[in-house]
TrEMBL record:
It comes from the Bacteria. GTP binds at residues 11-17, 39-41, 304, 330-332, 411-413. It comes from Flagellimonas hadalis. The gene is purA. InterPro entries: Adenylosuccin_syn_GTP-bd, Adenylosuccin_syn_Lys_AS, Adenylosuccinate_synth_dom1, Adenylosuccinate_synth_dom2, Adenylosuccinate_synth_dom3, Adenylosuccinate_synthetase, P-loop_NTPase. Its cofactor is Mg(2+). It holds the Pfam family Adenylsucc_synt. Binds 1 Mg(2+) ion per subunit. This is Adenylosuccinate synthetase. Belongs to the adenylosuccinate synthetase family.
Length: 422
């Protein structure tokens, strides 16, 4: 039995927190796509942790954590993550397993990402510059290097051929980027040696066996549905399938083995990087969301753009993923707003529509809002659904009615304990 946990917006919905909260109910937590472009934050016992590639179940003794074949791994960032975990006494070799089929991010992939972005000027994607796009390009172009290659003595020959090709490609972009490849390569090789001390597995086989033994598996998504390479706001997306299908290809889970699809969203909307965002606010309300919600990227530190909840986009994500249960995060951030707005339709070239059109740039789309009453109550100390203020219950009921999926968790703060079940 496999459950999926997916971000339904433009990422940073709070996936790390919820995976950590749910891990005690699972035997295995498995990341299935993305790479160190992700920043998943967990908070407990007064400490904040940010994970990039390592699954968010790593702090629990009961669970095995798998980095699946769909993930792209930068050994250098991975090593830093491992270093940060050292003081927590986790048995990494037995608890963290890595798919041999996961692709490797080379230093030159990062440089190519930077060169590609620099060449685009104002049209840049706003990538996290972690080399994600170029690495997935090499994967689908059938040129990539995989974790399993590191088990063979000739991996450096493979590495050299690919890195040399990348260098020529960087020249092709004809942009100014400064780098010292020798330094980057020595850092990479050192990190590879650390990576090689970990346990590499045929993860699809491991997951088949676990399923046969009745183990409970939670697949942890990265990014969000609107950053999906097929269904997101292309080209302002990431380079993997962040939606439910990505768990099938990124882990080897058959579609008929998926049970629950847990969809996670913020009570409002945020986005980092470029691209259309119909409900984006440029006023005091948006600034308040950013300030109260501490909306800065966990990977890049960039301020996140903020706006009201977009139900047109959220419904689209619910449909694409087949979401069976919803989790609403950061409800506490909306406390104090007199009125809460929700986008329930778009004015698209003068016509009222309720689906996501091909183009959602602001010159085509204006959000149409429904206004609901806000609440003043501080939610951060609440522990039960009975304590939620009536106006928040009305907000939840409105969303459930619109989306036709129950909201099972309401999150009221970053800590593990600030989680209310309904
Ligand atoms: P992820 O990428 O989906 O794991 O999300 P991030 O970790 O990038 O961003 C979510 C941010 O919101 C983190 O700083 C979390 O600590 C924080 N957070 C999560 N849930 C809540 C919540 O309910 N309320 C508040 N105020 N912060 C939250
Ligand atoms: P988590 O898992 C938010 C965004 C980048 C950029 C676009 C492409 O923490 O939710 P990339 O580096 O993938 O080529 O960048 O996608 N992006 C994210 N935004 N959360 C993330 O991950 C993101 N990962 C990538 O800002 O707009
Ligand atoms: Mg994040």
């Amino acid at each position: 039995m496999v459950d999926l946990l997916l971000g339904l917006q433009w990422g940073d919905e709070g996936k790390g927190k919820i995976v950590d909260v749910l891990t005690k109910e699972y035997d295995i937590i498995a990341r299935f796509q993305g790479g160190p472009n992700a920043g998943h934050t967990l908070e407990f016992d007064g400490i904040k942790h940010v994970l990039h590639t390592i699954p968010s179940g790593i702090f629990h003794k009961n669970a095995i954590n798998i980095v699946g074949n769909g993930v792209v791994i930068d050994p250098v960032i991975f090593k830093k993550e491992l270093d940060n975990l050292k003081k927590f006494n986790i048995n990494i070799v037995s608890k963290l397993l890595i798919s041999r089929k996961a692709h490797l991010i080379l230093p030159t992939h990062r440089l190519l990402d930077a060169a590609s972005e620099a060449s685009k000027g104002k049209a840049k994607i706003g990538s996290t510059l972690k080399g994600i796009g170029p690495t997935y390009m090499d994967k689908t172009g059938r040129n990539g290097m995989r974790v399993g290659d590191l088990e063979f003595d000739d991996w450096k020959t493979k590495y050299r051929a690919l890195a040399d090709k990348h260098e020529a490609m960087i020249d092709f972009y004809n942009v100014e980027i400064e780098y010292n490849l020798a330094e980057l390569e020595s850092e990479f090789c050192e990190a590879v040696e650390t990576l090689k001390k970990l346990t590499f597995i045929d993860s699809e086989e491991y997951i088949f066996k676990a399923q046969a033994e009745g183990k409970k598996i939670l697949a942890e998504g990265a990014q969000g549905s609107l950053l999906d390479i097929d269904f997101g706001t292309y080209p302002f997306v990431t380079s993997s399938n962040t939606t439910a299908a990505g768990a099938c290809t990124g882990l080897g889970v058959a579609p008929n083995k998926i049970e629950k699809v847990l969809g996670i969203f913020k009570a409002y909307t945020t986005r980092v990087g470029s691209g259309p965002f119909p409900t984006e606010l440029f006023d005091e309300d948006g600034a308040t969301m950013g300030r109260v919600g501490n909306e800065f990227g966990a990977t890049t530190g960039r301020p996140r753009r903020c706006g009201w909840l977009d139900l047109v986009a959220l419904k689209y994500a619910v449909q694409i993923n087949g979401v069976t249960e919803l989790m609403m995060m950061k409800a506490d951030v909306l406390s104090g707003f007199k009125t809460i707005k929700v986008c329930t339709a778009y004015d698209y070239k003068g016509q009222k529509i309720q689906h996501l059109p091909y183009n959602i740039e602001s010159e085509y789309v204006t959000p149409i809002y429904t206004e609901l009453k806000g609440w003043a109550k501080d939610l951060t100390k609440l522990t039960t659904a009975e304590e939620l203020p009536p106006a928040l219950n009305d907000y939840i009921a409105f969303l459930e009615e619109h989306l036709q999926v129950p909201i099972k968790i309401v999150s009221v703060g970053p800590d593990r304990l600030q989680t209310i079940r309904r």
